[in-house]
Amino acid sequence: ANSAIRNTLDLASFAGRISFTGWPKQETSLPTNLITYKELDLRGSRTSAGEFDEALRMLSTLEINPQDVVSKVVNLDEIPDAVKELDRYPERYLKINAVFH
């Protein structure tokens, strides 16, 4: 878990928002210098148990149209340009997903 958290902080864009989900089993030290430098917004979520499974079910059964939720899908190397475009035209996007291959 610690390496995943660190990778998330490293990959996040400047002024990015990171949501941690679940209930941590142990304390994790965070590089506050990196968080401050990148002006990251960190949020925790522990009360949505079961909601992710329901959301995935609704998307997989097309109860919800994925195109209504995900505005754009990009590869890892396209993330910087996608973030710039999102910053410039926020009204065009609800959610941009990055695919890691």
Automatic annotation (TrEMBL):
This is Alcohol dehydrogenase. It comes from Salmonella enterica.
